[in-house]
């Protein structure tokens, strides 16, 4: 049998640090805020300056909004953004605790990534259709989804819009123009392109936006999305949330070692923006740019949001097994909530006291919402949907064998 | 001999395989440094090196495709698909390519690949962490499809699969990873420590693919099943007092028809059971073969016990799961017919 040498010529990407080692983010270059230029949103894709290796940042170290991407967003809007991001974080903390009490089977937090979804939702119109992954709960919160409804879904109870069929965090909210979330990675992105093609076909000026993680860009569906978006110049925003990790594999395993995720757009002729995902103003400005372009039929935009997954992948995961515990503290782009808060304080539109008060109000609201949600049951206790409902919605009308199987299930329980 | 749960048994099989053949390598999502989301490959990268056990991009189609290329290059890839529910992006590479490479090249090329994937419900995984897609693969010519029900078989069958020169779909009932499961979620979880099949030899051994096992001899009827339901079937016999002969198929393709038919011809009654949905499930194939070979021996219609024809619903997991009740009812119907 031929033997393989100890050292092979096969390249295997490795993260900078593992548990027990010093966190190292030296690969992340952090340019000054305001440095990146802002082309006209309707610029010809071939003339587009390369922003796929840049990092669009608005908030500088003095917490001021600077540069061409700082486009005069009102203090009221910023305060609203702060509130929605904090609501998202408090919501996550609450549901995480409830999961630990055994009342939810599973939960996914978005801690540290709140700006990516909240700022984007605020920069879009309510008629624009959103295709999120499981880590954009901020979109639902920013679009004003009822917290009780969101919790009821996670509890799989009698008020769950998904009727107990999905794991927690796989929300569905048609009235809010947000698509039902899939557990199968990446599937939503080409679907967002298709929705956008539909809007163009119907001569509407609605646009679509989809979100995938860094890890998910490896799936074929990511590339299908880029191909179709480019070919049909679909009015769509394709967001890559690069939070550095995909469960235990770092972004290099998805191909981030040799090019940025934004650079994927180039080969398809799709303008790409690489954005500081923890800078609320930058995410907002980049989304506005892409939305303006799409709405005027200027075509698709790819946005890479550079951020960091502060918490475990999910409640089933323990990151201390694969990355240094202190990595979150070493992350060079800070925390989106802290940064927006500091900016509002800097411009004289906010105070520590107001912030504490807002936090208290949100926490109370969350507490009350959860109490109400539980009255509709939890996964194992309280009121439950009739079990026979599981045979509904396979088709518009159940088929004869569904009716038979439903009766058989009831019989099982009557014995 | 060491007592092992199914995860440790699978780990041991891969350890042996990597140790004995430098051309064997393991690839999949999160299998490297972390050792897999179910820990099946824990410690193997450390022991054998970065290039022998490594993480892949999240692209199931890509994983299987490059593993085909590696196989053609003379390697023996062992692929992990994180959940069977996520194999679908790879289906084109598996069905149109992997399964037919030997055939379409007139036997010139072959790919000795094993594709491991956790399957089945019982962990509150909802519709995307619970599926049993074996019927999709058994319907494709050129794939072997196997599914062990205990640690001893898991290790022996995985070594057989890895050493096999043909592609093997290796399904792992994840509800059995840590212990046998009789279908009652309210009982405290059992472990493999008390179970005879948790005794796993440390070194190399194989359990042949294509050999079923009679796990309970009986006279009243033949209950044919595999995976998680093997343990449910044993408990159902215990609970009902029905003296069924329980056959654990272990391998669906190749199928041990000799063992099945000898038993059914003797008992004259058969029930087939699987967790997968009913319509076009592997049970349909079993029933067809039984009527072909045993029609004149049958005293009653062959019964099927299966999951319902719906996606696996999160909140109704235990209403979906074919537990003891459903199994006993089917056995009674067969006996009373
Ligand atoms: C098709 C498919 N393959 C594998 C998985 C299992 N899985 C769930 S999340 C995940 C990591 C995704 O990472 P990334 O895209 O970076 O998103 P993040 O979780 O960081 O937000 C994996 C591998 C899946 N859900 N779907
Ligand atoms: Mg990620």
Give a verbal description of the structure:
The complex is a heterodimer of chains A (415) and B (337). Chain A is α/β, with parallel strands linked by helices and 415 residues long. Chain A is built from 11 helices and 8 strands. Chain A has helices spanning 75-100, 114-123, 137-142, 147-154, 188-201, 220-231, 280-295, 327-330, 336-346, 352-374, 400-414, and strands at 51-56, 129-131, 208-213, 236-242, 245-246, 249-250, 272-276, 301-306. In chain A, the strands form 2 sheets. In chain A, strands 1-7-8-4-3-2 form a 6-stranded parallel β-sheet, with helices on both faces. Chain A has a two-stranded antiparallel ribbon with strand order 5-6. In chain A, helix 1 (75-100) packs across helix 2 (114-123), helix 1 crosses helix 10 and helix 5 (188-201) packs parallel to helix 6. The radius of gyration of chain A is 22 Å and the shape is globular. Chain B has 337 residues and is of the alpha/beta class. Helices cover 34% and strands 18% of the residues of chain B. In chain B, strands 3-2-4-5-7-6-12 form a 7-stranded mixed β-sheet, with helices on both faces. Chain B has a 5-stranded mixed β-sheet with strand order 9-11-10-13-14, with helices on both faces. Chain B has a two-stranded antiparallel ribbon with strand order 1-8. Chain B is globular. The chains are: A alpha/beta (415), B alpha/beta (337). Bound molecules: thiamine diphosphate and magnesium ion (MG).
């Amino acid at each position: 049998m031929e033997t393989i040498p100890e050292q092979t010529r096969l390249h295997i990407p490795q993260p900078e640090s593992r548990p027990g080692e010093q966190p190292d983010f030296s690969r992340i270059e952090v340019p000054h805020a305001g440095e990146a230029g802002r082309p006209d949103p309707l610029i010809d894709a071939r003339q587009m300056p390369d922003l796929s290796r840049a990092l669009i940042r608005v908030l500088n170290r003095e917490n001021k909004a600077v540069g061409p991407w700082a486009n005069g967003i009102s203090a009221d809007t910023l305060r609203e953004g702060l509130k929605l991001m904090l609501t998202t974080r408090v919501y996550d903390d609450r549901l995480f605790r409830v999961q630990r009490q055994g009342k939810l089977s599973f939960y996914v937090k978005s801690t540290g990534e709140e700006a990516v979804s909240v700022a984007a939702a605020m920069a879009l119109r309510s008629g624009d259709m959103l295709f999120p992954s499981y880590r954009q709960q901020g979109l639902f919160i920013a679009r004003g989804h009822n917290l009780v409804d969101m919790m009821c879904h996670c509890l799989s109870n009698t008020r769950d819009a998904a009727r107990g069929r999905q794991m927690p965090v796989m929300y569905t909210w048609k009235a809010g123009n947000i698509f039902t979330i899939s557990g199968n990675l990446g599937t939503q992105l080409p679907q967002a392109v298709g929705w956008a093609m539909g809007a163009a076909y119907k001569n509407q000026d609605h646009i679509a936006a989809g979100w995938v993680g860094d890890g998910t860009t490896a799936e074929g569906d990511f590339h299908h999305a880029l191909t179709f978006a480019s070919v049909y110049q679909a009015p769509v925003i394709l967001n890559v949330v690069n939070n550095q990790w995909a469960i235990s594999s770092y972004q290099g395993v998805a191909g981030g070692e040799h090019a940025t995720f934004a650079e994927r757009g180039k080969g398809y002729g799709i303008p790409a923006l690489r954005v500081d995902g923890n800078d609320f103003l930058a995410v907002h400005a980049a989304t506005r740019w892409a939305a303006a372009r799409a709405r005027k039929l200027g075509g698709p935009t790819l946005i890479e949001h550079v951020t960091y997954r502060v918490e475990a992948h999910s409640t089933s995961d323990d990151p201390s097994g694969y990355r240094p515990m202190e990595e979150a503290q070493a992350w060079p782009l800070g925390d989106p909530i802290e940064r927006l808060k500091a900016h509002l304080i800097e411009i004289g539109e906010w105070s520590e006291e107001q912030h504490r008060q807002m936090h208290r109000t949100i926490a109370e609201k969350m507490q009350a919402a959860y109490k109400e949600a539980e009255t509709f049951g939890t996964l194992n206790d309280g009121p439950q949907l009739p079990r026979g409902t599981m045979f509904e919605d396979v088709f518009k009308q159940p088929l004869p064998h569904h009716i038979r199987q439903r009766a058989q299930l009831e019989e099982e329980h009557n014995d | 001999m060491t007592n092992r749960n199914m995860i440790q048994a699978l780990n041991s099989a891969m350890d042996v395989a990597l140790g004995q053949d430098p051309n064997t390598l393991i690839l999949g999502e999160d299998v490297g440094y972390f050792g897999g989301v179910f820990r099946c490959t824990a410690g193997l990268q450390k022991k054998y090196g970065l290039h022998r056990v490594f993480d892949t991009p999240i692209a199931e189609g890509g994983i299987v495709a490059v593993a085909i290329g590696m196989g053609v290059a003379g390697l023996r890839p062992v692929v992990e698909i994180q959940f069977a529910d996520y194999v679908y992006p790879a289906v084109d590479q598996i069905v149109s390519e992997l399964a037919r490479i030997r055939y379409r090249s007139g036997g010139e090329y072959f790919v000795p690949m094993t594709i491991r994937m956790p399957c089945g419900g019982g962990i509150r995984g909802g519709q995307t962490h619970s599926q049993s897609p074996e019927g999709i693969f058994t319907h494709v010519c050129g794939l072997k499809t196997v599914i062990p029900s205990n640690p001893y078989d898991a290790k022996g069958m995985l070594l057989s699969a890895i050493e096999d020169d043909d592609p093997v779909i290796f399904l792992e009932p994840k509800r059995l990873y840590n212990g046998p499961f009789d279908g009652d979620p309210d009982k405290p979880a059992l472990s493999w420590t008390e179970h005879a099949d948790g005794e796993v030899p440390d070194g190399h051994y194989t359990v042949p693919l294509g050999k079923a096992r009679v796990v309970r001899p009986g006279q009243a009827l033949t209950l044919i099943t595999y995976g998680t339901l093997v343990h449910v079937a044993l408990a159902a016999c215990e609970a009902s007092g029905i003296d069924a002969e329980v056959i654990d198929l272990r391998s669906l393709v190749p199928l041990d028809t000799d063992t099945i038919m000898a038993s059914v011809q003797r008992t004259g009654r058969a029930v087939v059971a699987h967790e997968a949905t009913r319509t076009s499930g592997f049970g349909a194939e079993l029933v067809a073969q039984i009527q072909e070979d045993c029609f004149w021996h049958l005293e009653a219609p062959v019964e099927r016990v299966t999951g319902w024809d719906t996606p696996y619903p999160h909140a109704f997991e235990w209403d979906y799961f074919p537990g003891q009740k459903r199994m006993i009812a089917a056995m009674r119907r067969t006996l009373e017919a």
